[in-house]
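Q: what sequence does this backbone want?
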């Protein structure tokens, strides 16, 4: 008997959130359906109504990470409709903020913890949605003469790879910017994007929001 009452959809969301919290506190090795049930305050059997096993739970957590990034990316595009360069910069800052605020969720989202992605269509769909939105931004930047001409898919993957690598180094404690005393992290992120741009972008134009 569950100790709390949930609507069908609410329980799944609650279990995913409990899993995210366990990841943040103890890491992926500590994650289990039993522990998630305990964290959520429900019976040990309750998670099995939504997740066949731990892999399915990790896939759902990863899907939620992609969904969060996708929704924020769509919001950035709507906010800066006439400014593709600002869209790209804000997207990079958003990516960094997500990783800073939820490092464990970020790492699991982009890890190989899900052994067979093709077994989880929702995960593949959300990852594709996120890449699709980035491609739109990159395409707009190229058409505006902001980014170097290149196949748009390849450019989008290259930009994403650069920002992801930068972000991963930062949250893993590889703080080269502090050791080298060269620039604040926001300026280094702008410098990273500059490698793909035709004209130099001043970091002062795009301060990292509080």
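A:
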């Amino acid at each position: 008997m569950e100790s709390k009452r949930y609507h069908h959809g609410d329980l799944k969301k609650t279990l995913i959130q409990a899993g995210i919290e366990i990841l943040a506190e103890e890491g992926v090795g500590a994650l289990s359906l039993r522990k998630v049930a305990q964290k959520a305050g429900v019976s040990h059997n309750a998670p099995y109504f939504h997740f066949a096993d731990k892999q399915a739970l990790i896939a759902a957590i990863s899907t939620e990470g992609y969904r969060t990034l996708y929704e924020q990316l769509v919001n950035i595009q709507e906010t800066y409709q006439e400014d593709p360069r600002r869209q790209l910069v804000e997207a990079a800052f958003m990516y960094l903020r997500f990783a800073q605020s939820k490092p464990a969720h970020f790492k699991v989202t982009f890890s190989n913890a899900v052994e067979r992605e093709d077994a989880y269509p929702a995960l593949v769909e959300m990852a594709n949605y996120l890449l699709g939105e980035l491609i739109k931004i990159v395409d707009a930047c190229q058409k505006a003469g902001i980014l170097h001409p290149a196949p748009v898919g390849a450019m989008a993957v290259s930009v994403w790879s650069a920002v992801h690598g930068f972000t991963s180094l930062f949250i893993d404690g590889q703080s080269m910017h502090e050791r080298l005393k060269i620039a604040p992290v926001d300026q280094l992120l702008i410098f990273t994007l500059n490698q793909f741009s035709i004209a130099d972008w001043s970091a002062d134009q795009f301060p990292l929001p509080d």
